[in-house]
UniProtKB/TrEMBL annotation:
Keywords: Cell membrane, Lipoprotein, Membrane, Palmitate, Signal. This is Entericidin A/B family lipoprotein. It holds the Pfam family Entericidin. PROSITE patterns: PROKAR_LIPOPROTEIN (PS51257). Residues 1-18 form the signal peptide. The keyword Membrane applies. The lineage of its organism: Bacteria, Pseudomonadati, Pseudomonadota, Gammaproteobacteria, Thiotrichales. It comes from the Bacteria. It comes from Candidatus Thiothrix singaporensis. Transmembrane segments: none annotated.
Amino acid sequence: MKKLLTVLSLTMFLATLAACSTVEGVGKDLKSLGGSIEKEASKDDKAK
């Protein structure tokens, strides 16, 4: 039983680390997208 609990705990810990990495990547992608939108909006304002 102790071995099962250890394996489950380790699995949950690794899944949490993987999720954090994924969330961080999504955050970077959204930041990049926001920067691109701002650039395009700035170009549009200058064209007027």
